[in-house]
Amino acid sequence: MDQQALRQRLLTAPILPLMLRQALPVIAVLLLQTLVGVAETFYVSFLGTEALAGVALVFPVVMLMTMMSAGGIGGGVSSAVARSLGAGKTKDANALVLHALVLAIFFGLIFTAAVLAGGPFLYRALGGSGRALDAALTYSRFVFIGSVPIWVVNQLAAALRGAGNVRIPAIISFIDAALLVPISPALIFGFGPVPALGIAGAGAAVTLFNSLAAVVLLWIMIKGRGGLTLKWAPLETHLFKQILGVGLLSAVGTFQLNATVVMVTGLVGLFGADALAGFGTASRLDYVLVPPLFGLGTAVVTLVGTAIGAGNQARARQVAWTGALLAFGVTELIGLLVALMPNLWLEIFSRDPAVLATGALYLQRIGPMYGATGLGMLLYFAGQGSGRVAAPFLAGTLRLLFVIGAGWLAVVRFGAGLPTLFTIVALGAVLSAAITAISVSFQLGVRLPGLLSPLLNRKSKAQTVV
Length: 466
Known about the structure:
This protein is an all-alpha fold. Helices cover 82% and strands 0% of the residues. It has helices at 3-12, 15-45, 49-86, 90-125, 130-144, 147-162, 167-189, 199-222, 237-269, 273-288, 290-309, 313-340, 343-346, 353-366, 370-386, 390-413, 418-444, 453-456. The longest helix is centred in the N-terminal third of the chain and has 38 residues, at 49-86.
């Protein structure tokens, strides 16, 4: 499908079916990547507890880089490409691919240098010592020498998603995973002429296959077979601004989210190991919800960006609220279910009464607010698509300050218990969602009477192409 035909479909097709077609391949890929991560952890477990602990120390840093490259700066790339194509600026859309590649190399090198130089200090600060620290440094070294390929893959995939092409990134990810699952243990334990590399083999496998995926994506985009063409052109400041104007704040926003979780974990830790285990077990469900929300969010970025570029604000508004209300409904249903029957989730991991008690308390307080989290996250993606993320970023900042400030005062200063702390966390989610909803509503035009129309009508009058 050429760019004009794809643009026409993104601007005129019924919103909800189109959104789901764009989202489902991304969701499938994210779930597959989660399973691959589980498989890698399983393989490493045979190397001993120290190796497993070493990988655990590196995992948060890898996740931070992934979130920044795919959802942060990558969100800026998707938004810029979608807005350019929506406005009919094919030349700019193609030029943005080169600019995204330059940024991928730049940020990838920064991560490589920062982690190789600061890794020993960072992993010690996270509690690493002895053989676990040695394992972390070895694994980290082999993963982060491949930072540039990881960034290249995520930036080019983001550009393709911004153009409405989710098929090619999904196919490459599936092939990559199918190869990684059997070859990773071959590098770890050795196979035939391949020597056993141990923990280094696990890191080398990640770098090897991201490098392969990067080469394949570069070849596809140089040939122009993904709807966008990568070719040399003079670098332009305004195109970098289009990406970074959205991407930088979005990247910092991913850091805010992780910082909130880390700080809350620290406060829960004051109540002892059982409380920490219960909180950790229950809050894993929060992360399980991220792949489907991110997948749906990438579709919203593309559709909102294309509509904004075409000057069709009414369709952008309908796309935003369609995604937000769908996310709200699904996450709220899950939240209410686990609030009423928390052991459905908790007993998968533990049967310890003390762990179950804390985990149930968390889910009973946080579960009913899952809908707010889903709604806020999808409207944040709508803000990315529209090219304006300052207000959603402010919402995340206020959430961080509120949860940490009020949580610290309640627990440390006034001696409040876990019920109060978890209630504060829940209120923080509602506060962030409310601010995001209000700000995005005004950005896209407030039309509350028609709020439910995207879900009730398969095709609206607002789908006229401008």
